[in-house]
Amino acid sequence: MNTRGLLDQLLKSGQDMLQNKVGGHQNRASSGALSSLLSGAGGGALAAGAMGLLLGSKKGRSVGGKVLTYGGLAALGVIAYKAYGNWQAQQGTASNRGPQTVDRLPAEQVELHSQAILKALVAAAKADGHVDERERALIEGEFSKLDNDQELQHWLHAELNKPLDPADVARAASTPEMAAEMYIASVMLVDEESFMEKSYLDELARQLKLEPGLKAELEKQVRQASV
Prior knowledge:
globular
């Protein structure tokens, strides 16, 4: 299952889409928006388009700055590395090896991190309860076209249809660095002015067992990257 390729496409296309819509409240995504997202070819582009629809139905906001500069999956790793490293230094526990974030790992481990991050993104997109039956059917229709990767199609289907459960999301984190990346991805997407979404984010941090200082540092780095 090539989650890494899908996630990289999603982050890059999603950033462009969200950046282009900054400054005003977005209407819910439509089939026309979906068509424009699916201008690429291949199963990965279709999946990224379907996920982009899910993420794009949130109100316009920009992740800008360093996220766009680094682009895609590497951006999450860079932000997580800096935040985790700063926190370790504050605690006096910095390692010579440095945090093993997704931008510094061999391919096999990157795939594990990617799946966990994508799981977190799907959950965060559902945190405001905005995915209605029409949107779900539209997204599922695009997933059904992923005939070149049945495993990925079934996995995404299952994640989309699961009840929102921060504990289930957190179980995907097998390392502290993975937990940090999952939280960063969630912070990038969640609207902290929404009580429902902020509550989800706080509970996710608790389930990920993030120390308060690390949680604050992760949020700080996302804010700095979004300037």
